[in-house]
Amino acid sequence: MQKVNKAFYVLLIIVSVTFCAFETKAQTACTQTLRQARTVFDEGRIHELEQLLSDCIDNGFTDDERTEAYRLLILAHIYLDETVKADDAMLELLRDNHGFEINQQADPAELINLYNTFRHDPIFFWGFRGGFNTSFVNVIEAHGVHDLNNSNASYSNQLGFVVGLLIEKRFGSRITLRSDLQYIINTFDHSFSTFRRTDTNIDIVNSTASETQNSAGMSLMAQFRLFPEKEAIRKNKFEKLNPYVGLGVTGRYILSSALTFDVSNSAGASPDGASEDLIDAEIRNQFNPTADIEFGIKKALGLMYFTAGVRYSYGFLDITDRHYDNGRLTTFFGWGANDINTHSLTAFIGILIPQYVPKKLTK
Amino acid sequence: MKKSLHIANTLFLIVSFLFTSCNDEMDAGPGESETYIKLYGSQNNEEPNDMLLHADGSIIILATQEIIVDETTYKIKVLALDRLGNLIWENRYPDDTSESEISYKGGSIISNANGDGYLLIGESINSDNQKSVLILEIDQSGTQVNSTEFMIDNGDTPIAGVGLALNSQGEIKATGLIGSPNNNLWVGTFSSNLELQPECSFRYASAVSDPQLLKSTFTNSNDEVVFGLTGFQTTSSRQNGKLVKVPSCQPIPLSSPFIVNESNSISYATSFITKTSSGFALVGTRNPDDGGDIFISLVNSDGVPFTNEPIVFNELPGGLILDGDEEGFSIEQTNDGGYLIGGSSESNSDGGSDIILVKINSQGIVQWYQFYGDQNDEEANIIMQSPDGGFIILGSTEFGGINTLILIKTDREGNVH
């Protein structure tokens, strides 16, 4: 058995070395071919280029070499007035190198003109992102079990998180429309005093109800690039980050809303623990739409984009359906639900992957 | 570039405004709501005694606090609530500045003759453990403006005030229970400034053993004093209830029948009485020592039952069998001529005893029922119909192991939302 294993490893090494050697040899030969093609192009023997480059374009060039080879070939077809072949070669170039960009200063006008007759931008972007959020609670009307004429209750924000899949499509040089599918966890605390001592007026029952909402959301956002698109070479450092602001809406659907009580009762037992789900208890509405404002950047990383930013989501509907239940929440934990809307601030990072489908544009 | 930065700055200002626009409970204030649930507690056990409901929906609650330090003492606690159940004021009697060892226990509360304050009746226990009838008059902000105590046999025989009513002359009719070994009833008359009128104050034989007075006390158009009584029949060891009607300034009470035929071998312990359009309604517990059931008995103004047997609730619509311990504590005739009955039940699946409300029509058919509560023990002691047609339930719950007042305001079907 050991002998078989040893033979397998030796074979594997031989095959690997052989493959690398052939690969290196092919690359070296095609590099020389490209060098020769440049000379041929400079000498004006452009009708020889197609035959010279075809084998290495099919197999042998590195990515950068292949892009340059296509560029020479396209120019040759243009100068030979072979428009169909020039179009074909441009299409192959754009399919091969999604990130190919014209150099407005250096490239011949004919190449630039031809390039501009093709759809060379991504038709859409897709990606994913995730981040942390913190929630803010606005009380519309108070409805607690405790005395509301002298309430010292407050809400405090806790850390949650969000992950999502997104798709973007650009319209013109400044506007982008984006849609997200999100899974969101929001957490916030509701602290309040239920009773005070009758002799000293000091609080004796202090409760903190931590609410964790799990939501699924779908958003639609219009983004406005702060700087119009232009050649990367002409951008300053800030412009290269492609900063944008966005406005949009998110339809959130609260899947579950769990409440956990931490009660300190200096006079008796502390009714701690988890309540039943507030959705099951019909305390919370499930639909929680938000209006969103976002500021972010999209930094090119090779053929992908790194995106980061902050989003403020303003919940504009009251998410409370029912203020009291008939049992555990009220009589055991001493809690009633205020009418509230919730807002959140999210910091996120993500990746955007462009999807290219180059084609000849019709006039 | 400038324009872009201007956009970013504007958005920053909008977001900053949104951040600072969150209200807390005090900023937002109590919300208008048809229903609510409120808890009123402290470091002490508290027992609800009585409730007054004003036409504007505001409420006065009378309760008794049990204060355990070295010894157990009691204080009367009065809470004034707005129509949303939030506290306007609360006072304790004797007040907290008093260092005496006097205990006060609450009985019932009514509005005074002028309508500018309240009269409370209860029990005063002094440091020598002498028990007397206590009547307090407080103004609308809870400040004590007058008080009197009435002791019998120089304090050798305990007496506790239970009920209060005003007659047509504005005099105060007070009912009380004289303790063992006498077990007599007492009806006293006080002037509006709380001076006892001995010529119109009498002791009456209860004709039962271990009598308990029902706290609601009424006066009729003849200025007779009417109240309820429960106790063990002298002819048997079972409990039974009856209406007691005492003529004004006469020492002999009129006799009235028991609400259940005396030959019946089952106990009917009566807890509460309320006035109805055709007489009175009494509620209580059948067989309290053996898986009790809630019962009601409807009687005419002379205390004669309309039916031979009380209505007993041991099964509710939908097939819910009330097979746990149930107790009936309160009843109120509703605007539609039916009745709402409150008590406690162990037949709900949440554990502990829960508040139970049963709504019946004028024929005694159950229209709906509701449970409130969880694993704590809850009970409904006083129920009233609110001006908006909903119901107010004053009861108790063992929040954190301490007996705490609970007030529930429901809609017309007993729902809270």
Helix and strand pattern of chain A = HHHHHEEEEEEHEEEEHEE
Q: Strand order within the widest sheet of chain A?
A: 2-4-5-6-7-9-10-11
Structural class by sheet pairing and helices of chain A: alpha+beta
Widest β-sheet, arrangement of strands of chain B: 1-29-28-27
Percent of residues in helices of chain A: 25-40%
What does this structure look like?
The complex is a heterodimer of chains A (363) and B (417). Chain A has 363 residues and is of the alpha+beta class. Chain A has helices spanning 2-42, 49-58, 63-79, 83-96, 109-116, 237-240, 328-332, and strands spanning 118-119, 124-141, 154-157, 159-171, 175-196, 203-225, 244-265, 273-274, 290-301, 304-315, 339-355, 359-360. In chain A, the strands form two sheets. Chain A has an eight-stranded antiparallel beta barrel. In chain A, strands 1-12 form a two-stranded antiparallel sheet. The longest helix of chain A is centred in the N-terminal third of the chain and has 41 residues, at 2-42. Chain A starts with a helix and ends with a strand. Chain B has helices spanning 2-19, 25-28; strands at residues 36-40, 45-53, 59-68, 72-81, 87-93, 103-111, 117-125, 131-139, 144-150, 159-166, 172-178, 184-190, 202-205, 208-219, 225-233, 239-246, 268-276, 279-286, 293-299, 311-313, 315-316, 320-321, 326-333, 339-345, 354-360, 366-372, 378-385, 391-399, 402-410. Chain B is globular. In chain B, 46% of the residues are buried. In chain B, strands 1-29-28-27 form a four-stranded antiparallel beta sheet, with no helix packed on it. Chain B has a four-stranded antiparallel beta sheet with strand order 2-3-4-5, with no helix packed on it. Chain B has 417 residues and is mainly beta. Chain B is built from two helices and 29 strands. Classes of the chains: A alpha+beta (363), B mainly beta (417). The interface between A and B is large, with 62 and 62 residues.
